[in-house]
Amino acid sequence: MNKQTLLVVLSAAFALCACQSSKVRIAGRFVGNNARYVYLEQVSPLAQKVVDSVELDKNGNYRFMLKDASRTPSLYNLIFNGERIPLFLAGGDRVTVNSVGSVIRNYTVAGSRESELLREFYQAYVGGARRLEQIVSRYADAEISAEQRQRLAREYTDEYYRIRREQLRFIIENKASLAAVYALYQRLPGDTALFNGDSDVVYFRTVAEALEQTYPDSPYLPALLGEIARMDARINLTSRISESGYPDLELTDIYGKKIRLSSLAGKVVLLDFWSAELGNSNVMNAELKDIYAKYAGSPTEFEVYQVAIDSSKPLWITAVQEQQLPWISVSDLKGRLSPVVGLYNVQKLPANFLIDREGTIVAKDIYGKSLDDKLAELTR
User: Fold this and answer.
1) Structure confidence by residue, pLDDT tens digits, 340-349
2) Which of 27, 94, 256, 376 has the greatest CB tally within 10 Å of its CB?
């Protein structure tokens, strides 16, 4: 491609991006129900909220105009007659959703490839889940015979595994779609895992790798990578606990040296999680430095293994050096996506775990006088 052709292509691409609409039109018709209002619900990782509502006209028609929509598809629900229709919507979409009678069973969608894919999965999945509910309802009937119960139990098992097989098939066949992300998180009643617990990571990783190519800017990708990190951490947890009595870590210090937490065996260790990016580390570390100095030279050695949940190497190193932290400071620079967050189930920062010389975690989130008193007991 010569330089002139390249400039033309780049100019056209820029123009296309510049004129891409941030508006989404959603329209259609719902008939066969007494409900009169349709609601549009925005779904985020933390919450669901209704962002608009309209009344059907006399023929059952409705229309929404969503402004400031993201260029990458985001999840919304169209709610009618108490049922939710999931849609992936992006700026510029003109989506048509119609239904006659039962909303979920009969709805159709056009104008959004991701939403069309999602319908393919969702209708089949919800239909299967309802069949399971019907079997359970019949099974609970006191009038049926033992033979009928056995038949229903076999029917339930067959239907359950059929749904699971179809779910996994859809995920693999559509791994590069956001519909596959949605399918990853759907669970049948009583299930906590997609397929087989920790082995689910195979499916999450397959989708994440494909999504990095199709939707590299999607807000769902970091969440997916975080889930993979937590799964990886759980997979390693059992073997690590068997070695050291607590989940072991091997992270890199500011000089590039890898240090294992288990290398401090025989000492009293404060495993401390913090973040230089939060900006509140000066006070916290100043108090800890006083305690660290107080127990230097104790009969049982005391050490701090401090893990920075940060993603900026310069910021982390600067904080360690400016605060003159005297203990072991390490990080994998993956921030909140770090596997150590899941390994120790760190929900907030700062957080810490106090480990005695036998390798037993004896306290969690212990600070100030409580930490001082406990160290006086453990380091004698």
Assistant:
1) 887 787 888 8
2) 27
